[in-house]
Amino acid sequence: MPALGKSITRLDIRTKVQGSRKYPQDFNLPGQLYGAVVWSAYPHARVRHIDTSEAEAIPGVVRVITYRDVPVNEYGINLRDQPVLVPEGGKVRWQGDRIAIVVAESEAIARRAVEAVRVDYEPLPVVSDPLEAMRPGSPLVHEERGTNVLHHVRVRKGDIAAGFAQADVIVEDVYTTHAVEHAYLQPEAGIGYIDEQGRVAVIAAAQWPHDDLHQIAHMLNLPEEQLRETVPAVGGAFGGREDMYIQHLLALCAFVLRRPVKIVFTREESIRCTGKRHPFVFRCRHGATRDGQLVAVEVEAVSDAGAYASTSIPVLNNAVSFLAGPYAVPNVALDGYTVYTNNAVTMAMRGFGATQPPVAYEQQMDRLAEALGMDPVEFRLKNALVPGSESALGNRMPPGTAVRETLIAAARAAGWEEVEGHWRAPDPGPPSAPYRRRAFGVACAYKNVCYSFGFDDRATADVELALDPSGKIARALVRIGAVDVGQGVHTALQQIAADALGVEPARVRIALVDTSEVPDAGSSSASRHVYASGNAVLHACRQAYEKWQEALREETGETRIRARYTFHGRDIRPTTPYDPETGLCEPHISYSFGTQIALVEVDIETGEVEVLKMWVSHSAGRIVNPAMAFGQVAGGIHMGVGYALTEHFIQQAGIARTRRFSEYAIPSIRDMPRELVDVPVEVIDPTGPFGATGLGETPTLPTAPAILNGIARATGVRITRLPATPERVWRALQGRGAPDQPRGDR
Amino acid sequence: MPQIRFVLNGKPVELEIDPGERLAYTLRERPGLIGTKIGCGEGECGACTVLVDGVSVVSCIYPTTKVQGRTVTTIEGLAPEGDLHPVQEAFVEHFAAQCGYCTPGFVMSAVALLREKPQPTREEILEGLSGNLCRCTGYYQIIEAVEAAAERLAQRKEP
Fold first, then answer.
1. How far does the CA of residue A18 sit from the closest CA of chain B (Å)?
2. C-alpha angle with apex A528: A248 to A525, nearest 5 degrees?
């Protein structure tokens, strides 16, 4: 009986519902001390002098760690442009920069002593608008670079002028997306200590522990063999733990003090001092012919990188590759910029640059459909990418491309009908009150699976079979550095291993992710673990299976069989970086696809938006575990609803104004659509393990544009700046006037 | 140091606490009951939900001194060790946890809800769980779990 395709119980859920599963803050070690961070008081300032004497005089304070204690004071996942602790004479560039770590006998003493560290700052002019930061003469965040523009990428395909000349309708507008917070429920926490082999060890939540080690090794000027990171249960990540926010601080404390040091961030620290989703400004111009062919797409996209690079360059690269949406278009001109500011660092967050573009391209697509008098589903179907289509970047879409399939499945579920070759929308029904307007909103999106643009996607799995006296497989242990951040990847890998070995899933154990025990599998990001780590596990298990069969044939009497396999994405579909001139390239290995339709009601007196019901369809190849896949879809929609309507990390001149959950509103159980109809489709990408790709991110992508398109069709008003708060919607309604009668869907 | 006595998961305890100490801190740091999670420290997310005399409270802002002479139930006290309460069973079967950090709080809120309203309507479930935030699940599988738990509890009570 294959395990794949069945809703096998999550292997970690029993201890999670019992409350016995340990997260980083649940660990304590004998003799541990407590650390607390002295954060920058300014978004941009020169640090003249740091005086720790008063703090060090407080009874119970053991040490105030400053830049003097950091062997190599720089780090960063992509560029090493961040100081670990800002030195005297150096600059703070945002509020999340650190001056010192106070270590004390108790957390209360450490936090009190933080207030006693005196820092003499020379405030500098703050640049907080990326468009302003691009202008010559703007204050520079990193002077040595001579510009705030961190990265520019351009794509030119076909003849953009000819494309617009051919177009019968052209729509243009500017769309602005905002910074949002990952808001995982488990704040950053952990312990640094010296392990029994003398290694500098860290227990913390992380998405890529092996890369953390790489960065910590540089910081401490130690070989990686003298370091160790253990990742216990992780309380959500969503990209926010791909960079180090606490791991390196824990390692530094242990390195300096040779004693266990625990640090737990408050929710305010977790919101104010960690990275965010990139805000973007999209200037868009789209053209289509009368018969509904998309013929020209011109977009300029500018993202706010915040104070340090983090992954802003790859996020921009990714975003640009999706600017035209999942549609075939012959004439393309795309420009992307990411720009340093004194705002919060921006980083990976569910979608990695694929989440912001649909807010722009799907509203543009809806406007083209409106301008053409065409059904939004029909217009999208006419242009949807299919296997073999050429994308905006000139690559051919692989098998598994499923824009059409998800669009048709969601539209049919919502009540769309195809009549004589034309798609007809259902009646959204009367609004629930005379002051409310109701309509459907449609949106599609797609997202890469695995790393892109020539960066090899690599994952290693190690499998050990324990044989019983009769030679049967008693147990299989899979060692792999793939972190289960809550998405359930360990259960998925268990299912893949079970089927590859022909055993019950209960016989397969996935080892704790500890860098001293498991091989590197890359990060829990890019929706990649089912595909990349799944392939690694699949092939390691197949090799182990062969060795086992051979041992049985040869009657060797072996009781242990081991195999190790490293998966390389480049062996399957090599990707390439942007061509410097044209931008044309092979951007991605594989993809997942989704369509969401939202039935929306807008209160035209208050501007409140309610999402009544959603019909959604996604494809990520073969579904490994349907109940877990539904969880990814529903959780993605949760994040999308928050992105569209309620969540906003507000900064004014580099100062965070939203610092708590009482100010930063992630959707509660009452804010979700009352009904969610999920109609998954399984369009197979044969290169995935058993045809599976990855579903972690795509469900977040279409939600916001589906809601925004619903608002527009219900009220006639386009919300081009997120989030669509009641105030914004109300103001837009006042400005342009609301129609007296509901317009329905058409 | 103030002394405090209360019944914790069915057993009388006597603890020394710091003045002004909050219940979540007391539970986690003194007897080491780590199942009570701290997500926000301001009573907004519900991850720290426990029962005081059977009523749910957010323990991260609840003064420990207020439990003097009362009964406190945490996630660890819902079922005999190693066993599951019907609400916990339903959470397992319905995939109502992903990262799991909010889960003990949701389970405790659900237990409190079902004690008060053994056959809750959908609206009553939403009301009963509206003080708990989850960032992973989108809540649907949690709602299903609570509905299933209500059914299971009702069946167990039937003769």
1. 6
2. 30
Name the token pair of A197: 């082999």
Tell me the residues of chain B between 70 and 99 that have a Cβ less than 8 Å away from chain A: 74-76, 79, 84, 88, 91-99
Contact A445, A618 (CB under 8 A): no
Whether the CB of A640 is below 8 Å from some CB of chain B: the reply is no
ipTM confidence:
0.98
* Confidence (pTM): 0.97
C-alpha–C-alpha distance, residues A678 and A594, integer Å: 11
What is the spatial distance between Cα A390 and Cα B131, in angstroms, rounded to a whole number? 48
Distances (CA, A) of A62 to A31, A52, A104, A113, A223: 12, 12, 5, 11, 27
Structure confidence at residue A357 (pLDDT): 98
* C-alpha span between B140 and B128 (Å, rounded): 14
Residue of A nearest to B34 (CA): A26
Alpha helices in A555-677 (DSSP H): 569-572, 626-641
Between chains, do B76 and A20 touch, taking CB under 8 Å as contact?
yes
Look up residue B40 and give its two tokens.
Answer: 């926000």
**Residue A612, pLDDT above cutoff 90:** yes
Instruction: Spell out the residues 6+ positions from residue A181 whose beta carbon is closer than 8 angstroms to its own.
Output: A271, A274, A276, A277, A647, A649, A658, A664
- Compare CB distances from B140 to A182, A186, A634 and report the shortest one's residue: A634
Q: Is the pLDDT of residue A461 over 70?
A: yes
Q: Is the pLDDT of residue A669 over 90?
A: yes
Cα Rg of chain B, angstroms: 15
Measured between CA atoms, the residue of chain B closest to residue A697 is B136
d(CA B99, CA B82): 20
Give backbone dihedrals phi and psi of A436, rounded to 5 degrees, phi first: -115, 150
Q: Which residue has the tokens 């809120």?
A: B109
The yes-or-no verdict on residue A744 having pLDDT over 80 is no
C-alpha to C-alpha distance for B42 and B47, rounded to whole angstroms: 11
Q: Which residues in chain B are closer than 8 Å to A491, comparing Cβ atoms?
A: none
Task: Compute the average pLDDT of residues A426-446.
Answer: 98
Q: Which residues pair with A61 in a beta bridge?
A: A104
Best interface-test mutation with A: which of B18, B98, B129, B144 has the largest number of A CBs within 10 A?
B98
pLDDT band at A743 (very low <50, low <70, confident <90, very high): very low
How sure is the predictor about B158, in pLDDT bands with cuts at 50, 70 and 90? low
Inter-chain CB proximity B41 and A19 less than 8 Å? no
- Do residues A573 and A693 touch, judged by C-beta distance below 8 A? no
Residue reference for tokens 């397969």? A508
Strand ranges in A543-652 using DSSP code E only, listed in sequence order: 560-568, 590-603, 609-619, 651-652
Q: Give the whole-angstrom CA distance, residue B147 versus residue B122.
A: 8
pLDDT at B159: 58
Question: Region A300-321: what's the mean pLDDT?
Answer: 98
**Numbers of helices and strands, H then E, in chain A:** 18, 30
